[in-house]
Request: fold
Amino acid sequence: MKIKGGCHCRAVRFEAEVGAPPLPVLDCNCSVCRMTGFLHLVVPHDRFALLSGEEALTSYRFGTGTAEHLFCRHCGVKSFYQPRSHPDAWSVNAHCLDEGVALDVTEFDGKNWDAAKATLDDSDAAG
Reply:
């Protein structure tokens, strides 16, 4: 199934190929995800395309600096980013999809990232 989405001002637009609904998403309780309301839909790099807005993206890193949080510099929305948990995939914010789609939400204990990372497997990736 093809999904499309992007930021609030529509400067950043993407599309991705994912499996059939309900799509598996992670609801992380770490400080940045909790504060931004991010719902993680993990999409392999080769199944994701940035359609527009690369020049509108600005980067933020914290902690280990491994994850690259990408925000639209115009509206401030983080529609996708490079997570440290899945270095070969993007984490797409399910809240930023154009169309509503059924989701299978799993809580992820990002507050205790090192222990929680061990619980992730390939089934946590979309499709």
The first strand starts at residue 2 and ends at 6. The chain has a mean pLDDT of 91. The CA atoms of residues 39 and 94 lie 5 Å apart. The chain has two helices and ten strands.
